[in-house]
Amino acid sequence: xxxxxxxxxxxxxxxxxxxxxxxxxxxxxxxxxxxxxxxxxxxxxxxxxxxxxxxxxxxxxxxxxxxxxxxxxxxxxxxxxxxxxxxxxxxxxxxxxxxxxxxxxxxxxxxxxxxxxxxxxxxxxxxxxxxxxxxxxxxxxxxxxxxxxxxxxxxxxxxxxxxxxxxxxxxxxxxxxxxxxxxxxxxxxxxxxxxxxxxxxxxxxxxxxxxxxxxxxxxxxxxxxxxxxxxxxxxxxxxxxxxxxxxxxxxxxxxxxxxxxxxxxxxxxxxxxxxxxxxxxxxxxxxxxxxxxx
Length: 294
Prior knowledge:
The chain is of the alpha/beta class. The strands form four sheets. It has a four-stranded parallel β-sheet with strand order 1-2-3-8, with helices on both faces. Strands 4-7 form a two-stranded parallel sheet. It has eleven helices and ten strands. It is globular and about 60 Å long. This is dTDP-4-dehydrorhamnose reductase. Catalyzes the reduction of dTDP-6-deoxy-L-lyxo-4-hexulose to yield dTDP-L-rhamnose.
């Protein structure tokens, strides 16, 4: 597995550790340069499944450094796919809703037309196409969105941290998506890997996001409500209140039609995931600290 030190990677490791049949090789960024094709080929040899959780995730910085971002999110994925083809291995590659333009009024299907608005999305699309071309029978691209988790910086953690320092918070209310807990996605990736090895899951694109939809404003309010904080402290604003170098899609809701064909359950609703995530130690500690007066 690549990206083993990241937010999702660490949850995938936890998921696989509970599988008595899984023997896991975990590679962090310092342990494997995925932009080096020879290093990738050597790392993949002898493995049955490769889970690629490594990625350039700084969306705004990618606007200024698109070539470098695409080297990680695009060219490096090509190296992984090529190495998996040579080794006869399955590849599970994590991608993003940012490959879409965000102007649909209905959930994007797995085969919907892509049209990224920013450098990050363009680079991730390069990676998706490499998987489809080089691994037509053993390549799986799992698009996710609005990911948050116990490890690393993310929106939910930031909202709880700010609750202890600010009386009110302005949060964007005109972007729609599916807040997805990395723990839920890790479970789904584990199930997909097992289904792929058993020959039950058709290769191709899957959408690994929570059911339902909301805005960042809605996510922030629900985070506060479930954490025993006053949701009225969250105030809605438009995207123009927070100008960013990279344009964000206004609508990133994804459909989940591929999972039943693989015999893998779709993820629970985002509210259910959030409730489970907030019970984990890190989020519970942040919420408790935010509730302390002064």
